[in-house]
Amino acid sequence: LKHAGLIEGTHFLRQDSRVAEDGIARPDISILLAGGGEVVIDAKFPWDAFFDAMGFEDLAQRNSLLDKHSKDLLKRINELSNKQYQSTGSKSPNFVILFLPFESLLTAALDFDGLLLEKAFGKNVIPATPTTMLGLLRTIAFGWNEKDLNSNAEEIRNMGAEMLKRLAKLVEHIENLRAGLNKAVDGYNSFFSSFDRQAVSQAKRLAQKGMPSNK
After folding, report:
1. What is d(CA 101, CA 45) in angstroms, rounded to the nearest whole number?
2. What is the pLDDT of residue 22?
3. Which pLDDT belongs to residue 92?
4. Mean pLDDT throughout 64-71?
5. Euclidean distance between CA atoms 16 and 100, whole angstroms
6. 68-105 burial string, b = 16+ CB within 10 Å, else e?
7. N or C: the chain end with fewer CB closer than 10 Å?
């Protein structure tokens, strides 16, 4: 999950409990999909018969145990189908993934039951080995990356719109400041013209009449 770029708590949850008709259903992993919904993964797989078969050199004994392994795997598929994770109030697609951590767990079972996958698909259970699982997970991660890019683009668009709004307000303030400065200049010019006529000319006449002044 992490190798595929998925983050726990954001993209997937561990042992997420939900209520089924026969009690509490608890898948090992619930992978959230970028567009909504989830993919449910169960990682409890039959192991004993396969492991025991690897310890026998006698072909008949080994084949007998591998045949039992194939039947055990089908039994587990039926159990998962009966759990009906996808009908427990979740948005799961209409299938459950049974994760098998070794490719040989599936291939050995298929050697003794060539219709095993067809039976599993018919019960909405998909056995997945690391190869197929990683492909699925990276596809899901790609969907999340696309959603993040789209979300970032939308956020950038909103930030740009907000920046333009703020710039417009600043331009409004600058325009008010310019108008205020123009008004101040006009007021200064009017004052200076009046001052020159009313006060300066009178002061010059006083100086000409002998009023003492250093300036």
Report:
1. 9
2. 55
3. 60
4. 95
5. 20
6. bbbbbbbebbeebbebbbbebebebeebbbbbbeeeeb
7. C
Task: Using the predicted structure, report yes or no on whether residue 87 has a pLDDT greater than 80.
Answer: no
- pTM score of the predicted model: 0.64
Long-range CB pairs of 138-144, under 8 A, 24+ apart, other chains included: 138/4, 138/5, 140/4, 140/6, 140/11, 140/31, 140/33, 140/34, 140/39, 141/4, 141/5, 141/6, 141/11, 143/33, 143/34, 143/35, 144/5, 144/6, 144/11, 144/34
Judged by phi (left if over 0) then psi (alpha if -120 to 50, else beta), residue 40 lies in: beta
| Token pair recorded at residue 174 | 């600058």
Residues 6+ apart with CB under 8 A from 94: 86, 124
Report DSSP state, residue 197.
Answer: I
Helices (H), 3-129: 48-53, 59-83, 103-112, 116-122
Residue 36 C-alpha from the chain's centroid: 10
Whole-angstrom Cα distance, residue 117 to residue 74?
A: 9
pLDDT tens digit string along 20-62?
A: 555 556 788 989 888 788 888 998 888 899 999 988 888 999 9
pLDDT digits (tens, 9 = 90+) for 6-21: 989 888 988 765 555 5
Show the beta-strand stretches assigned E in the chain.
12-14, 18-20, 23-25, 29-32, 38-42, 96-99, 125-128
